[in-house]
Amino acid sequence: MARTRRYKKIEKNAVFSVGRFFGRGFSLMGQFFASVFKVFDRKLTVMLVPHSQAKPLSFQTNVFALVFGIILVVGMGASFFYFNKKTVGSSMEISRLQDENRKTLASLDELRDQNSDLMQTAKRFQSSLSQSLSLLGINQSNQSNRASMQSSDLSSLFNTNDLVSGTARETADIQQLISYLEGAIQPIEQIGKMLESQGTLFSEIPSIWPLKNGVGHISMEFGQNKHPITGQWYIHKGLDFSTWRSGDPVVSTADGQVVTVAFDTSFGNYVIVKHKHGIYTRYAHLNSFRVKKGEYVEQGQVIGTVGNTGITTGPHLHYEVHIGSDVVDPAKYVNVKQK
Predict the structure, then answer these.
(1) Is-contact 310 320, C-beta < 8 A?
(2) For the chain, what is the largest distance between any 2 Cα atoms, rounded to a whole number of angstroms?
(3) Cα gap 253→101, rounded to integer Å
């Protein structure tokens, strides 16, 4: 029992101490706020004395109202300067955006002009492509993508342009042009394949000038001519190419195999090349050889040089084209293309 009473006494003393501590604290806080209130509640008289003989003006206030008024004025001044600065910054940003907008509008006008030029070019492209396809026998309406070609045809594009305005018009133009160009890919690929096959054919037949880089001129044509030495009429079985000098490169006019590299009292040094489709070409009066018998040559490859060997009146190349046992006029081939 004695121990229990002792614990209760200690507990009572502790509660009393805590209560007295908080009581003293609240008392001090109350005194502090009371003194502060007393300071802020202190009366002040403000008098305005004019320099003239007018009656002075005076009014009473307290410290709290004066401090609050000063804080309010300072806050309003700070707010004024802050928002004024923000307004100036916003005005500068608006000016910058207006400049950018003007530049963007100028760029848009330029883009529209370029788009208009592009559409005009597309018109010319469509016309040229249609003519080329007609000449080559390619019918666009028979393509597998006929529907897409018709929906993206430039004629429908130019007819529907009037229904669209502004930026949407340019966008619609470009989209239609893209669709048309995608549809034009297949016929253009067909043209490329056709040209590739024709290029292969041209390389297999004598179709280029027999002197490298197209130099020289034809000094005697195929057919009936006066012999430059005897003066008698005879049939000239080839073309004579002259550069008035020896040593100019002579090239094979088509892919083939060298079957003869020899000398003849009439032709002098000469080379015969066998090509596909039963075609042979002869290159005579050469100054030197650059190939051997049995060698395969490509179109445009140098096989010798212009000379003055055999029966001649000056340095030149005598060039013949044979199809089977027939001699044909080389002029029908040498003007096809030049290398």
Answers:
(1) no
(2) 168
(3) 64
Each residue's pLDDT tens digit, 65-121: 777 788 888 888 888 888 888 888 888 888 888 888 888 888 877 877 777 777 777
CA dist 334 and 317 (Å) reads 14
Enter the pTM of the model. 0.46
Instruction: Give the DSSP per-residue string, 53-105.
Output: SSPPEEEEEEHHHHHHHHHHHHHHHHHHHHHHHHHHHHHHHHHHHHHHHHHHH
Q: Identify the CA nearest to 65 among candidates 42, 36, 97.
A: 42
Integer CA distances (angstroms), 189 to 146, 182, 325, in order: 16, 11, 39
Query: What is the DSSP secondary-structure string of 173-233?
Result: HHHHHHHHHHHHHHHHHHHHHHHHHHHHHHHHS--S-SBGGG-SEEEE-SEEEE-TTT--E
Structure-block tokens of residue 220 = 């005697």
Going 19 to 20 to 21 to 24, the CA torsion angle's sign is: positive
Q: What is the C-alpha to C-alpha distance for residues 304 and 307, in angstroms, rounded to an integer? A: 9
Q: Is 238 exposed, middle or buried (0-12, 13-18, 19+ CB in 10 A)?
A: buried
